[in-house]
Amino acid sequence: MAGTRPSFTAICCVDAGLTPFFLRIVLRTAVETAIAKHDFRPDAAARGLALGRTLTIGVLSQAIDSPFYAEGLRGVERRLLQAGYAPMFMSGNWNEVDEQRCMEEFVDRGVDGIIMFSGRLSDAAVKEFARRVPVVVTGRSLRAAHVFSLPIDDRLGALLAVRHLVGLGHRHIAFIAGSENHPDALDRLAGYRQGLEEAGIAFDPELVVPGDWQEPQENILRGIFDRILQILARMMPGAKSIRVALHRARGVKIGKGVWIGYDVVLDTARPDLIVIEEGVAISMRAVVIAHFKEQRGVRIEKEAFIGPGVIVLPGVIIGRGAVVKAGSVVSHSVPPMTVVQGNPALPVAKCGIPFRQDVSMRLFSRHLKPLAAPSSNPGRRPGSGGNPAGENTSTGKKV
Known about the structure:
- By secondary structure, the protein is of the alpha/beta class.
- It has four domains: 8-41; 47-150, Response regulator (Rossmann fold); 154-209, Rossmann fold, CATH 3.40.50.2300; 222-370, Hexapeptide repeat proteins (UDP N-Acetylglucosamine Acyltransferase, domain 1, 3 Solenoid).
- 34% of the residues lie in helices and 17% in strands.
- The chain has helices spanning 8-16, 20-38, 44-51, 67-82, 96-108, 123-130, 154-167, 183-198, 220-235, 242-250, 361-366; strands at residues 56-61, 86-91, 113-117, 135-138, 147-150, 175-176, 208-209, 253-254, 259-260, 265-266, 274-276, 281-282, 287-288, 298-300, 305-306, 311-312, 316-318, 323-324, 329-330, 338-341, 346-350, 369-370.
- The strands form five sheets. A seven-stranded mixed sheet has the order 9-12-15-18-20-21-22, with no helix packed on it. It has a five-stranded parallel sheet with strand order 2-1-3-4-5, sandwiched between helices. The chain has a four-stranded parallel sheet with strand order 8-11-14-17, covered by helices on one side.
- β20 (338-341) and β21 (346-350) form a beta hairpin.
- α7 runs parallel beside α8 (183-198) and α9 runs antiparallel to α10 (242-250).
- The chain is elongated and about 115 Å long.
- The chain starts with 7 loop residues before the first helix and ends in a 29-residue tail after the last strand.
């Protein structure tokens, strides 16, 4: 067109003898080469000023170390990074003051949006923050400008859980309610009660306990030291000396003359909840779990014998002189001088004498009194005492 001045690109193309397409390729290659040579990294702050955005999103969880929130935070981080945004994580700790502080910090740092996982901050406060920056909030139903809410039907979830347990034949159903007066907890309690009413089960307030959705925190240094001792106790020699001393150092209450076999595990986190009385023998690869949620403990009374590979669960007392046969799972207390086997471990015989270290298998077997209860193994005689230690009776040696 007459009177139109040629562009800089057009002049470069004429001088270089290139078309505009090839000129762009040459320039792009030159720029990328310079970036690689000088290890250039773009300044995020400068880019934010140019774009009018920081490309960061504030993410408010209630407890970053919670397994419940960890999955959600991982998903948020993955999708934000794919979109070119960086997350900024903070914890509200189920505390309205902390949540308010976190939200103010996000706004002051100029985030482009906020994702809020539930919380105690009032709806009015969330709406007020949304006037300054867009907000996504979970766990509530909230209609307001620049607010996107993701409600969760906690009542229906609890109702379905009760229906499932009732369908399995359970009638004695407990409920951990979460933090008192929290909306989520109240909705779940309402669903729990509705499920009981549907099934014709009377509501028992004794079966409802509050909780804070968190497990007790373990002292880190003590936990590390305790696990080192546990590893040593599993592999070191000295069933009546070194292993016993190591478990005592961990906090297990152990009496005199106790025998602990190879690779035995005595609760990794709460060994102090275990009591092992005098003359007890615990065979190789047995596991004693002393706590799960409620800290209930395990007591193994005098001269009891725990066979190889046995698992003892929380809240159990193994009576004096009792014998738990190899591979059994003990989920209920064992009466004194009783042989139990199976999963769950059930009584199969009464002991005439304790199965002490100085008692042979033949002598012990002669004093057994089989019980008349049906055997779970059709190939064995009902109530047979069998071989509690898993030993070779031809040699009398324990494995």
